[in-house]
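Just scan this pair:

***
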Amino acid sequence: MERLHWVRHRWQQMVGVDVGRGWYSSAAPLSSKSPLDAQEPPAHRLTGKRRTVVARCGPNQSEYHSVCKGYLGNSISTTKYSLLSFIPKNLFEQFHRAANLYFLFLVLLNWVPVVEAFQKEITMIPLAVVLTVIAIKDALEDYRRYCYDQKINNNSTSVYCGKQHAYVDRRWAEVRVGDLVRLCCNEIIPADMVLLHSSDLNGVCHIETANLDGETNLKQREVVRDLPQQGSEFHPENFSSHIECENPNNNLRRFRGYMEHPSKTRVGLHSDNLLLRSCTVRNTETVVGIVVYAGHETKAMQNNSGPRYKRSKMERRLNVDVLWSVVILLLMCLTAAVGHGLWLNSLKDPIYLIPGDPPPALAGFYMFWTMIIVLQVLIPISLYVSIEIVKLGQIYFIQNDLDLYNERLDTGVQCRALNITEDLGQIQYIFSDKTGTLTENRMLFRRCTIAGTEYPHHENARAQELYEEPAAEGGCSNTLRSRTSHRSLSCRSLSCNRSSTSLNTLTRDSDTHSHDDAHPTLTRGAFSSAMECVVVPDPPLQLKLGGLSSPLAPPLKQDAAELSHILDFFLALAVCNTVVVSSPTQPRHMVQLPVPRTPLSTLEDMKLLLQKLSLPRFALTSPTSANAGAQPNTPPQPSLTRRLFARGRSATFTPNTPPDPRHATPTAGATTPTPDGTPRNLTPIQTRTPSPCPSPSPAPSPSQLRAPLTGACGHTKPPTGRDASGDHNTDTDEDDDDESEEEEQRLYEAESPDEAALVQAARAYGFTLLGRSPEQILVQLPGTGPLSVPLLHLLPFNSARKLMSVVVRHPVTGQVVLYTKGADNVVMDLVPSDAAGGDRTGRQALIKEQTQRHLDQYAREGLRTLCVAKRVLEEAEYETWLKGHMSAETCIENREELLLDSAQRIENNLTLLGATGIMDRLQEQVPETIEALQKAGIRVWVLTGDKQETAINIACACRLQRPTDKLLTANCDSKEACEILLAELTEEIRHCEESNGGTDAGAAESPEGAAALGFTLVIDGRTLDWALQPDLEKAFLGLTQRCRSVICCRSTPLQKSQVVKLIRDTLRVMTLAIGDGANDVSMIQVADVGIGISGQEGMQAVMSSDFAISRFKHLKKLLLVHGHWCYMRLANMILYFFYKNVMYVNLLFWYQFFCGFSGSVMTNSWVLIFFNLLFTSAPPLVYGILDKDVSAETLLCIPQIYKSGQDSQAYLPSTFWLSMLDAFYQSLVCFFIPYFAYAGSDIGVLSFGSPINSAALLIILLHQVIESRTLTLLHGVVLIGSAVFYYAFGLVFSVVCVTCNSPTNPYGIELHFMSEPSYYFVSLLTTVVALLPRILIRAFCNTISPLDTVRAGIMDRLRPEEYWTCVSQWKDRLHSKNVQSSRLPPSNLSINADPPHTTDCYPEACSVLS
């Protein structure tokens, strides 16, 4: 049904007539109307490219049936079959395989009398067995899907019923588009809904999308703006708006549409207004939404594509060899047909010919088809089923490998693609992301530069180094699961009426508790260890801020402009993000405090204003003054957060109450004039004396940090002077304890670890993010109480812009300010440095120059850099931009392009505030893993969006680049320069090769040759754009093949996929891409093997991957051990299958030379059919699952053994044809030794076939023993069991069967022959002669020139001391070989296209991140 629905949808798209502009066409002017705006019958809109949604109840109830009746219901069905359709549909799917069609053809052919070879029922047995086994497997899988569907469809939810005028419980399957659904805390969303109402006063709710994309941090969703009922209780009967939105699609991060109110006002809809199916409501009591997509049209179901399927390299090779087997079969049948015709033609009136028989030519034609039936076993029908079984067994062992298990995350390897396990053993290129893949992606704030002044934060660095090791060893890191568990309990204080029952498949982790659950105070939100929660302020920077906020500080000596930059810098860090603030006891923190907004002319005015904002207990005082001002008789007051954020205290928010003009605090929506006369919205808060908030104090030493670090990390601040001295204000102890307890529970839920680190850094300096809503952000500045920052617009991060911005109204000056943070190369280009940009004094140019110098220094130290800037907008300028931006938000077509253009119009002419350096350490054992992969002959490329210097530093630290390697940099501004540079770099390398002894191109392009030469290419994103163009691809590939490794910096997701595709298709090599974030999905899907890392950036990469691991170090064993085993096992099993089928079928072919090519056989048809289907089918399965040519320890110690899989040594065309020749030889021996042994005797045909079958069985079974590298008890049981099964079947068949093999009679034949000694002598002699050449040739080759796998297998059988001696000698031999072949580039190598292009990798630089 899914396919039929898709076909219908595509047909409607093709034939639908849309006279207006297309869905992706350019936007029309606002004054013109599209056809959707015209007064057309609603039914006609179903065939267009949008959908209209109206409420099922209320004023639009009459319109509902004509508009929404064509939409799917919410019932889901992921099953393929029903009871009636199972047999026909399953057979139809199975006969899509060419092998099954081939055997079906043989079954039908055997029913033709003139070509019949066996009894009709016998030829049906192989096909029937294979079809039955696969059908049973499919039925079990489909039944499991059916049970899951029923469980989902039978969940209940509250839907508004127009007849009963109340919310009633309905099954998920009964929900329809247009229904108004009410959800409570912890309930799972049943369908995609537009959020219409939230119990939160600010119109937001939080959802957890872990069931959808694996991300465990909370996402904030907003109620549609300007709803008539917004801010009050929602009445479904009064909802009369229409929704126009895009058709269903699988883009989880995009939703385009608009809502048209009865007043004809349109409000744009976006992804923040959409609640997606299978997500969970968190931290919100009640939400109400209208269903826009249901069932299979929801984004969750659109992304449910099932298991990934890729064709492996070996499978493609297998299909070629199957075709060769068909060719051999046709040749053998053609030979028999010609031979039969010639034999009949040579006879002169034989007495046994029946009158009316066909002439010899026609008889030969009939015999061709008869031989097709007789020799059908040559095509291995059970091979494909056996391969599936073997791969399932291999996956089982991979997933249960304890070395690949991450105990902290409680996760192992996930095999999402079930049919490419052998490709893991043939990888030649690895393309890796850097952040989160090679590094931890646990960002730690290290240093910053503000207004051109660098603040190194040495104490912060020492504190992090001091506590890094104890934090790691202590095991206190919270896993993603534990944080999810904490959040699932965070709604208890909200008195939710009910909580949902977790679905096993949707919220599989919600019921799982880690060891951290016993310590509820260790909820760190976005941070996973104690070290990440603490930022020790830099003393000079703290001193400047302390002097501003303290009323007792001496007069300020600093430059007012510099201090203004500092304030704006940290304010930008606090507000320019999407961090959600939550707590186990409160859903969110949001208050609003109107402040005087006057222009600040001097630094002293700024200080006075902040001191005015500093209510009495917010002032930073000395211990003496604090104690002097204490009043012991005053009862302790509750803390600020408990007084302002207590549930049930919403009486202070009175949107419908007119303001009292005598009070200073206006009501919501009231306006106050600004100095320029522009009205401004203000929001009320009752005026209460807030509790103290300590200002930054001198930086503590690492020893002073022990107490905070061992506690909770929700809110850790440096101890103040009062704390250090031991004097406490007894009057405020209880308040401080209450507030401290509240702050310790605060969680920062960040979508990116960078955001969490920057927010924590701002918090260390007193710029604390307390909460956010769609309209405002609550922050706390040094020495002040909570300030409400009106949030006018949020321009989210975009990979094209590489920026994120917020437009706010400054809480102090009242100006409209744009705060921006993003990639330094982008921000720097947007900062003017001349008078044209308003820089009359040259100060901005100086700041830009100094900041760039600091950025380069940060990059050389391996820090992630980020620039922060701002722009002050005039009111008129802002209003002009706002009109265009609102138009873009309400547009459906081309919304992304219009919003991008709108953001770029405002993100220019910026004022540079500063930059940050964030540390991201390497994961454990990354250098060892990359070194082992390179020794295995795998070329490792790093594709990252970071700066060039940062990527180089990481490359040195992870041993991707050796200290002796030369670095080639490619940075160009034009295509012509890129072309010249690529040619010059290639020529210089070639010159270097020739000057060092002459290296041919083939050696240079091999991994060994490239490794010996010692060049690493570093190319930036702009140059990569030129290099990937068709006319420069060849030059780029030629250069990269001569380099040991390649680093692509500043690369976009699209460039990553283009690079992988270029290498894969042009060089025809096996590629592997590994990453951890959404920006890596494209290259993961393009590569032959995609691996996702379940890290800090959600699960998008994992969900798009073929295999998922938790750490980069696991890649070493996954490839070098499991990849090697899977490839060798499967390759040898496939060759063995071809061998045994050809060997046995040839016995029947040789017999045709002695029976006039009549199609007769010397064995009964039952044994003939069962020989390959039953008697010899089990040993190859055990062989393919359990065989182990080299131990895991040896494969890890000597990675060079992996090259055997890269070269496909086990399964080449030559090995296939050698196996065919060996099968032909063994069949000749197996047939003619018994033939000559019984020549001249009076034995019958079936008696002659008995020793041949017996010898063939022994030869085939012992052949596998020779090929096996591992013989266990299970191997012995299966091999002996197969032989016993054959003989038992033969004896029973000869005793019982009388007429079951008409026209022959096998009764007593096997019993008679097994009682004669000659039977055993002939069988043993035949077996020895048939296998002797293989044994001798194998012994000769392994003695004269053994393969690495053979040598390693011999080493595994040595004693431990001898084993390690051999391993050491092997490594020494490889090292001496590399030393002899290494030709280091001259130290004076210079490339002059761009200065300079070559750089040394200094060892001291490598120690930064190691």
Observations:
- The longest helix spans residues 1114-1152.
- The chain has 48 helices and 36 strands.
- The first strand starts at residue 50 and ends at 53.
